[in-house]
Amino acid sequence: MSIRGLKYAFATLSCGLLAVAANAQNEGNHRIVYTPTNDAIVAKAGNITNHGGTVITSAKVVFIFWGPSFNNAASADFSYARTLQAYRNQFGTTGEYNTITQYSGISLTNLGSGTADLFDTSTPPTNVTDSSVRSKVSSYTSSHGGNNTSTIYEVVIPRTSYSSSGSSTSCGGPGLAYCAYHSWIGSGSSATKYSIQPYPSCSGCQVSGFSDVQDQEHFVCHETREAVTDPTGTTWFDSSGAEADDKCAWSPTPFIGTGGYAYQYEWSNANGGCIRTR
Predict the structure, then answer these.
(1) Is the separation of the CB atoms in 193 and 68 below 8 Å?
(2) What predicted TM-score, i.e. pTM, was given to this entire model?
(3) Which of 31, 41, 143, 264 would staple 27 via disulfide (CB 3.0–4.6 Å)?
(4) How many CB atoms are closer than 10 A to CB 156?
(5) Runs of H (alpha helix) within the chain
(6) Peptide bond preceding 200: is omega within 30 degrees of 0, i.e. cis?
């Protein structure tokens, strides 16, 4: 679905489950151009290969919760945020994460062992642009000892905001084209890796029977593993440009796995297909 490690497309129900893919041109290491396509097409492109880049062998994830509701005990978002933290804290040692250890020496890891998560209680704009996400991440790193190159900085926004990249938007925006994406600032081994995690408030970003936070967990699963296996768009993807998680996005259907949390299937070269755990 993405050719340089940048986004997780939305699903629609129309004569089966469809998805939007990013046949993306990387402009300035952060911008994305999205082109709709049927997800089943990229899923048949064969194994992923290493195109010469590096992976994050022992990754960390830092959440930047942007919005007052995430730290307001009277709001449902208070529990939402803490559930995502608990999910992150166990994900890196699960069988669902272990699938990617076959790629370039990636190891099981405590994803929650990095610097502290940030609860930014300022109100984000309704339209959270990619530029504003990068600014938020850069502000965090400058006040927390600089960029840690093994860390993925994941910005979570409330349902009152939506993400945009160019004319494409997430749930809540005027042109739904994706549910989340990962990208980077800079280049090479020193690049800052980040992700935007918009609130899954629309049917195109929801799995039947999942709660809102479970939908978000499965997007965190997708973007985290892709940022680890293809942090700057130069490492593991297939001949169509699809990264490991793109190849299994939405089909098979995401599932409830280790710890009662939500995950999606992952592409395994060793198994020649999408698997739950390894």
Answers:
(1) no
(2) 0.90
(3) 31
(4) 25
(5) 39-42, 76-91, 95-98, 130-143, 212-229
(6) no
Report the relative pairing of strands 255-256 and 262-263 from DSSP bridges.
antiparallel
User: C-alpha angle 211/213/214, rounded to 5°?
Assistant: 65
Four-point Cα dihedral 195, 199, 202, 206, nearest 10: 70
* Percent of the chain with pLDDT strictly greater than 90: 77
Return phi, psi of residue 234, to 5°. -130, 10
Find where tokens 């993400």 sit: 163
34-84: per-residue pLDDT in tens? 232 333 444 557 999 999 999 999 999 999 999 999 999 999 999 999 999
C-alpha angle 271-277-278 in degrees, rounded to nearest 5: 60
Helix, strand, coil distribution of the chain in percent, nearest 5 = 25, 25, 50
Contact 17, 11 (CB under 8 A): yes
Burial of 269 (0-12, 13-18, 19+ CB in 10 A): middle
Max CA-CA distance within the chain? 50
User: Residue 86 and residue 207: Cα distance in Å, rounded?
Assistant: 21
Q: What is the pLDDT of residues 243-265, one digit of tens each?
A: 999 999 988 999 999 999 999 99
Q: What is the 3-state secondary structure (H, E, C) of 108-140?
A: CCCCCCCCCCEEECCCCCCEEEHHHHHHHHHHH
